[in-house]
Amino acid sequence: MNERADIWYAFPGAVRNPDLLDEYRGLLSDSETARYERFYFDSDRQLYLVAWALVRNMLSHFADVDPAAWEFTLNRYGKPEIAGPGAVPPLRFNLSHTKGLVACIVVPEVDAGVDVEDRRRETQGLEIARRFFSEREVADFEGLSLEQQESAFYEYWTLKEAYIKAVGVGISLGLGRFSFDLDHVGPPVGHPDRRLPAISFEEGLEDDPSAWQFAQWEPTPHHAMAAALRRGDRPDFEIDLREVVPGLDSS
């Protein structure tokens, strides 16, 4: 049986119960509370609050730890990691948020990343692609129609973000040092009519393309989501995608 990776996502604007929001605030650490209070706009506060309530409740679904007891640290590139409490199962997580959507992936032991993007925001897709994508990706991108480019841009971008978040080094790695083929053989989870994306690396970037598993979804008509898992020589993870309201659907 394949190991499982879980991705939960939530819509911050849908959480309106004041008692539930108070419960979320009670989960935050002192430093998280300070950051929450620094946000100027209520929508940004709500997004941050729901995001970290999602992380804490999701981790507690897989470990016997009170949601408020989780401790986190940042690696040198700013990626949050579990720091406590005490001896907990070897879980890894990654969080992503954009306007109207937050998502968290939890998986045992392996590197994992998730990215979500709001496709309604205005972008100069071709200009960004030429600046940040690999030469191979730019060539593929330029061969698409304008309508196809609008969709493909967020496919490429979420995959690239998910990968650099999984490896934990951030954008300093260089987005042009690796390429995605969006039409690799095999049906992705949740999209039986589409093909699995595959990664390749330029010379000098030490990584193994065969060690990675990628998947993509469209949780709403205007949101794109991608996940990256370093499965090594394991079989592909079974990915469970689930919409939740943190604290209500987290049991």
Structure write-up:
With 251 residues, the chain is of the alpha+beta class. It has one domain (4-243): Alpha-Beta Complex (Ribosomal Protein L22, Chain A). It is 31% helix and 30% strand. It has six helices and eleven strands. The protein has helices at 18-27, 30-38, 42-62, 125-132, 135-142, 146-167, and strands at 4-10, 71-74, 80-84, 91-98, 101-108, 112-118, 178-184, 196-201, 212-220, 223-230, 238-243. A four-stranded mixed sheet has the order 4-5-1-11, with helices on one face. Strands 6-10-9 form a three-stranded antiparallel sheet. Strands 2-3 form a two-stranded antiparallel ribbon. A hairpin with a 2-residue loop joins strand 4 (91-98) and strand 5 (101-108). The longest helix is centred in the middle third of the chain and has 22 residues, at 146-167. The radius of gyration is 18 Å and the shape is globular. The two termini are 23 Å apart.
